[in-house]
Amino acid sequence: MSEKVPDKIVEELRKAARSGDLKALGKAINRNKRDLPEDLLEAAEDHRVLKETMRLINKDKVRIYSEGVRLNVEDCCEEERKTRH
């Protein structure tokens, strides 16, 4: 099992994502790049991917591990059920 990124760093990323400022999220990623997975570092380089990543973080649909960012699948199904009814 892969290690989760430290809660302090995840909270910093969530705070930057909640601000809605892509530049702030990019800076938070760059400040912690040593402890973050490669896919998150690549997301910081592409404006559209960074924006989508910010949206997923704000909706609490991702978990950040040292090997990569994973979708929180359980929550995705709940939202799909809500939109169908």
Beta-strand percentage?
5-15%
How many domain modules?
A: 1
Number of helices: 5
Low-confidence stretches: none
* Strand order across the largest sheet: 1-2
**Helix and strand pattern:** HHHHEEH
What can you tell me about this protein's structure?
It contains 5 helices and 2 strands. It has a two-stranded antiparallel sheet. The longest helix is centred in the N-terminal third of the chain and has 13 residues. It has one domain. The mean pLDDT is about 85. The chain starts with 6 loop residues before the first helix and ends with a helix. Helix 1 packs antiparallel against helix 2 and helix 1 crosses helix 4. It is globular. It has about 80 residues and is mainly alpha-helical.
Notable traits:
single chain, mainly alpha, two-stranded antiparallel sheet, 2 strands
Outline the fold blueprint.
Elements: H1 7-19, H2 22-31, H3 38-43, H4 47-58, E1 62-64, E2 69-71, H5 73-84
Summarize this, please?
With 85 residues, this protein is mostly helical.
